[in-house]
Amino acid sequence: MSKRAVLEVIALDVEDAVAAQAGGADRLELVTEMAADGLTPSPATVAAIRAAVDIDLRVMLRLADGFAAGDVDRLAGVAGELRQAGADQFVLGFLAADGGVDLAAVERVVDALGGCRWTFHRAIDRAADRDALRKQLADLPGLDTYLTAGSASGVDDGLPTLLAEAAHDGEPGYEQQILVGGGLRLDHVARLRAGRIKAFHIGGAARPDGWRGPVSADAVARWRTAVDGAAG
């Protein structure tokens, strides 16, 4: 099995997806409405991107800004529509009002995924108890990744948490891969790789013109070089 670090790039459309793959991305996170921190794209967008690239795609399951699940039955139905459009990997995460994981909502949506692999996203960074959340979710089918900055405020503040969690790799609740994203910069990479973290997620960092502009293959290539070149 390849030991190459994973580089995941946010894509909004086919243009983004093609550029990200050209730059060396291993996987895409497909979203829409970044003004709301990323919502579920349409099945048509997912199908078009699936036809345009051959790298892995993870599709966001989130219908409104925030970390409440909202209409869980609707969300489960949307997941089914996305699977029909070619999606076979997903991103989701729901919290209850007290900051604990909304386990019932997560379980309902995961059941609709039928065993597909999925990421629990940065809702973990807003959780009241990260360790408890991990242990509650540990046995859910398909969960293989946590997207996290280690802190709600970003990687700068979250570095100690990320490195501490990486040191627990393989322990109960810590078998899933840590995918670092949220204020991630190139200068963080070497320290994270030295701490045995091998997966990185970028959004705005892949877009020289900001979210109004497309993904740049050259920007992604710089990240590819950085994550491959850092000690791991």
From TrEMBL:
The organism's superkingdom is given as: Bacteria
A GO MF label: copper ion binding
Which InterPro entries does the protein's record reference?
A: CutC-like, CutC-like_dom_sf
Q: Which SUPFAM superfamilies match?
A: CutC-like
Give the signal peptide, or none.
none
Q: Which family does it belong to?
A: Belongs to the CutC family.
- Which PANTHER family would you find in this protein's record? COPPER HOMEOSTASIS PROTEIN CUTC, COPPER HOMEOSTASIS PROTEIN CUTC HOMOLOG
What is the name listed in the Swiss-Prot or TrEMBL entry for this protein?
Answer: Copper homeostasis protein cutC homolog
